[in-house]
Amino acid sequence: MADAHDVPLEVHNESVIDSGLVIYPFTRLGEETFISGPLITEHGIEKHLETLRTVKTKDTDVLLCTSMKSGTHWCHEILSMLLSQSVEYNTKGSLHHMYLEFVAYFMDKLDEVDDPRLFTIHLPLHHLPTHHVKNGYKMIYLNRNPKDRWVSNYTFLKGKLGIPDWTWDEFFDNMILKDDLFGGWFNYTREFEKAAHIKTANILPIKYEDLKLHPFSTIKKMADFINVSQTDDFIREIIEKCSFDNIKKHKYDSSRIIDPKQQSTLFRKGVIGDWKNWFTVAQNEKFDEIYKEKMKDCDVDFIYEQ
Q1: Nearest to 33 by CA among 172, 163, 181
Q2: pLDDT (tens digit per residue) in 86-125
Q3: What is the pTM of this model?
Q4: Which backbone phi and psi does 36 adopt, to 5 degrees?
Q5: How far apart are the first and last CA of the chain?
Q6: Domains of the chain, with CATH numbers?
Q7: Residues assigned a catalytic role
Q8: H-run or E-run covering 46
Q9: Segment 140-183, tens digit of pLDDT
Q10: Gap between the Cα atoms of 5 and 112, Å rounded
Q11: 243: three-class secondary structure by DSSP
């Protein structure tokens, strides 16, 4: 596989940080907001989204679709090992995490990357490459119980370049109740769940909690979906290599770019149920009320405690 530095993408360089990169205020388009950055600033949000929708992927490409802070880097590492048929950590750099939001502008430069290629994206289904969706190319959709996910978003975003120094209560009011980042978690989840159910796209739904509690059967399901060979011993080795402690120690963190000290803050606890340490009783009741209304026609269940 080609080295990450062979591809001319400079968003991970220190010069970007020196130039005053910020990710907030978020960029708004209609009812959706998006994390700001150099590509959106350079191209404008509408052009940026159009570029993503018109990307021409290959039938061998796998798209990992995740709501932010749902276990993206963890699942990416597992898929990388399955696709490469090895248990070597993917430490080659930011491009080898292959965020489609970045590499969409350099697809012609990625021809030398061995197939099958793995791309990751946080955007909702209606912003994904039309070519990929309509042709039934493979997508793995990873989601997580929204309470733990929101806590993980709060601790991850806190202190990042440009982000207000919100308290948890302020974050609850400004982010959780508004729920408009990338179009909102509720919209994201309903859209993917519906597409997976009625099979308008080739989607394998995976839950963070299942990957945590039932790693063997969940990884085997992913391996079968992407048509890669596996043995029980190979899957067990992946589980060991991708344990939380091992991933935290070895996983390349491309998000260092948005930390003022360029420190890795990607992995914190990786547990189910930490939301109980953050949500007040009133906040929990308010969220449950909103969830019941927003998800009344969406048949999906999440695990909220281990």
Answers
A1: 181
A2: 998 875 444 455 789 988 998 888 887 888 999 999 999 9
A3: 0.89
A4: -75, 160
A5: 39
A6: 4-294 (3.40.50.300)
A7: 122
A8: helix 45-53
A9: 999 999 999 999 999 989 888 888 999 999 999 999 999 999 99
A10: 13
A11: coil
